[in-house]
Amino acid sequence: AVANHITGTAIGGSAYAHGPNDTAIGSNARVNADGSTAVGANTQIAAVATNAVAMGEGAQVTAASGTAIGQGARATAQGAVALGQGAVADRANTVSVGSVGGERQVANVAAGTRATDAVNKGQLDSGVAAANSYTDSRYNAMADSFESYQGDIEDRLRRQNRRLDRQGAMSSAMLNMSASVAGIASQNRIGAGVGFQNGESALSVGYQRAISPRATVTVGGA
């Protein structure tokens, strides 16, 4: 075992502590960066991995401030943490509990309370349920509003159609009354007419007086 600095510690066959405040414990545990710790057989701390920790047989850290705990765990990015056998942390400032193809679940996680806390599945399910409930209520409210608006439009169209039909029936009645009055050859004439259109009906009555061979006055209504 070799410790190059007075503040370094190396214990175990071929253990190596390169610089100040280094600790290498275990057969072939090798620390090549300052302020780092390697515990376990064949653990490795690279020269650039200052302030790093590797624990567990074959654990490796190759970036500054990295942590690898578990047999064969590897931290390859700055500030990354690999937890568990074979775990790989290859993104800066992240925590990994597995590897590609060797994923793990994190169990018994308390509900987060702050913006930067992790959220557990219970919280996520509750949030999704609340969002769905809100969306459903808004959709139902919009649907009800649309149906009400649609009903109002349909009612207005029905009333408009009835007015048009009544107007058509009245026009027909007035036309028939005029024809009736015109068919009477006397100075004073009274006529009536009836008109129909789409179920609506109208009655018109008119009076006509001939005031000269060339002029008449007609009064009528429906």
From TrEMBL:
On whether Signal is a keyword of this UniProt record, the answer is no
Q: Which Pfam families does the UniProt record give?
A: YadA_head, YadA_stalk
Q: Which residues form the Trimeric autotransporter adhesin YadA-like head domain?
A: 17-43, 48-73, 75-99
Q: Which GO terms describe its biological process?
A: protein transport
Q: Which UniProt keywords apply?
A: Protein transport, Transport
Task: Output a single Gene Ontology CC term carried by this record.
Answer: outer membrane
- List, alphabetically, the SUPFAM superfamilies matched: Adhesin YadA, collagen-binding domain, Pili subunits
- Every copy of the Trimeric autotransporter adhesin YadA-like stalk domain together lies at 105-143
- For whether the record's keyword set contains Transport, the answer is yes
Family annotation (Gene3D superfamilies) = GSPII I/J protein-like, Serralysin-like metalloprotease, C-terminal
Annotated protein name in UniProt: Adhesin
